[in-house]
Structures are given as C-alpha cells and as structure tokens.
C-alpha cells in the first residue's frame, strides 16, 4: 500500500534523513587507504547511536537473503554494485566505494547512498560517479506532483543510456516512511507517463546504480547479499530520500 505523509511527518522524516547524511559524512571522512570496511561501519554506527536513532539495515532479512544483514552500511567496492557486506577488506588507493546507509528516528526512516574514490581517482571512475549523480539529479527533477513513476524511471535511464552505462534491471528505488521499503517500486528504466501519479506527501528513495561496462548483467556472491557486475566492471550508486511536494522535490537526506 502506498502511504502519503502529512507535512509534519515529512518534517520528522527530514530529521531521520539528517542522521543518515551525518553518518555518510563520517564514513567519507574515515575512508582512507588501509581503513577496513568494518571500521567504516563502526564510524556510521557511532553517529546513528549518538543521534538516538537505530539502523534499519542491521539485522534486516528480506526473503532473498540467507542470513540477516550484519552491518549498518552496505559497503560496495569496485565491481560490487550494491549490498556489499562491511568486512575486513582494507581500502586501497584507487578503490571506487559506494556506501548505502539508513537510519530510523522516532519511527521514521531515511535512506541515502554516496559513491567516491579513495586516494587517486581513475578518470573513468570519476566519469561514472558524475553520470550517476546526473541520473539522480534527473530523477529528483522529475519527482513533482502530476508526473508519474515512469517519468522518474525514464529520466534515470536516459542519463545511463547517453553514457552507455549498464544498470541492473532488478534493482531500483522504492517508497519509504515508517518502513525502509514501502510501495511503490521505482525502476531505474521505463517509459514516461506510465505508472502511478505522483502527489504531495509521497516519499521515495531514488537510487540510480550505473555499471561502467555497459552490460546490464550482474551476479550474486555466495553470501546471498553482494551484487557484482557480471563483466567485472566498476559500479556507482548514489541515493537520496525525496518527498514530492506542491513546492517541488524536497530532499530529506541532506546534512
């Protein structure tokens, strides 16, 4: 069921989103060569706890997963697209890292992701991250009352196609509120003027995932969580929680 939030509930979600933004900033500051993914998870967890919030990621077990998720962040490095587990991998110069993080505060949820390089960036990685950001910007611009879900999907897909990037077809954005995943699903490709009509108070997590190799193929590791590009190319993932309002898109996961 699609839930429409009141203006007061949007304000409450903004506070949860602020916690997410601060947690991601702490991870970005800590992400140096030699630092482990587990240490990045600890940095995010400290921010979430200090804010009096909890993590919707930690212990999350959807039907497809064999075990509950063990961290408060998804840490996806290089060819990992999404859902990377924060383990003892130590960051190396030139790694492309995507961090997805959520927080629940006073019963409301925020969800966002960033992508960045550690140390010396490869030009191709910089271009990939910039294209993913453009795709998210296009999605946010389309998130206005009267548009449809397909308009958001089409906006993301247009940016990806223009750069000849691939996208994993089974993954996309989603509604968000009291739960991390709510209706509707927001595909990262689609036809304009299709799907449900956007209205004031609808909140969506918009999250383009672009793969450098151009293929849409992906594979899942034996852990049941980690999603990698099928061709071994690098991936980027950037996300914001966005409210559709009569005054235009309201990004809820800014600092």
Automatic annotation (TrEMBL):
GO molecular function: initiator methionyl aminopeptidase activity; metal ion binding; metalloaminopeptidase activity
Keyword Hydrolase included in the entry's annotation: yes
SUPFAM superfamilies xref list: Creatinase/aminopeptidase
GO cellular component: cytosol
Cofactors required: Co(2+); Zn(2+); Mn(2+); Fe(2+)
Keywords: Aminopeptidase, Hydrolase, Metal-binding, Protease
Binding-site residues, a divalent metal cation 2: 111, 174, 207, 239
Domain Peptidase M24: 12-246
Keyword Thylakoid appears in the UniProt entry: no
Enzyme Commission (EC) number: 3.4.11.18
Binding site for substrate: 83, 181
Reactions catalysed according to its record: Release of N-terminal amino acids, preferentially methionine, from peptides and arylamides
CDD domains (UniProt xref): MetAP1
Domain of life: Bacteria
GO BP: any one term: proteolysis
Main enzyme class: hydrolase
Positions that bind a divalent metal cation 1: 100, 111, 239
Co-factor: note: Binds 2 divalent metal cations per subunit. Has a high-affinity and a low affinity metal-binding site. The true nature of the physiological cofactor is under debate. The enzyme is active with cobalt, zinc, manganese or divalent iron ions. Most likely, methionine aminopeptidases function as mononuclear Fe(2+)-metalloproteases under physiological conditions, and the catalytically relevant metal-binding site has been assigned to the histidine-containing high-affinity site.
Family label: Belongs to the peptidase M24A family. Methionine aminopeptidase type 1 subfamily.
Entries under HAMAP family matching the protein: MetAP_1
Function: Removes the N-terminal methionine from nascent proteins. The N-terminal methionine is often cleaved when the second residue in the primary sequence is small and uncharged (Met-Ala-, Cys, Gly, Pro, Ser, Thr, or Val). Requires deformylation of the N(alpha)-formylated initiator methionine before it can be hydrolyzed.
Subunit details: Monomer.
Annotated NCBIfam families: met_pdase_I
Entry protein name: Methionine aminopeptidase
């Amino acid at each position: 069921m699609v839930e429409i939030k009141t203006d007061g509930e949007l304000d409450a979600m903004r506070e949860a989103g602020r916690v997410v933004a601060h947690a991601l900033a702490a991870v970005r500051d800590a992400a140096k060569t030699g630092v482990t993914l587990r240490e990045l998870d600890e940095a995010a967890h400290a921010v979430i706890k200090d804010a009096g919030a909890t993590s919707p990621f930690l212990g999350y077990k959807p039907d497809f997963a064999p075990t509950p998720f063990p961290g408060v962040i998804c840490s996806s490095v290089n060819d990992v697209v999404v859902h990377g587990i924060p383990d003892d991998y130590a960051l190396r110069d030139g790694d492309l890292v995507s961090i997805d993080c959520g927080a629940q505060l006073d019963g409301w949820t925020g969800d966002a992701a960033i992508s960045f390089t550690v140390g010396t960036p490869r030009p191709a990685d910089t271009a990939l991250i910039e294209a993913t950001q453009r795709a998210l910007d296009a999605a946010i611009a389309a998130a206005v009352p009267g548009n449809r879900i397909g308009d958001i999907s089409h906006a993301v897909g247009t940016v990806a196609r223009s750069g000849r990037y691939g996208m994993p077809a089974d993954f996309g954005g989603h509604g968000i509120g009291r739960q991390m995943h709510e209706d509707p699903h927001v595909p990262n490709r689609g036809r304009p003027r299709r799907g449900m009509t956007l209205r004031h108070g609808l909140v969506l997590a918009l999250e383009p995932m672009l793969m450098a190799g151009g293929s849409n193929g992906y594979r899942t590791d034996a852990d049941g969580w980690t999603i990698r590009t099928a061709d071994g190319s690098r991936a980027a993932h950037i996300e914001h929680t966005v409210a559709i309002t009569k005054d235009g898109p309201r990004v809820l996961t800014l600092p």
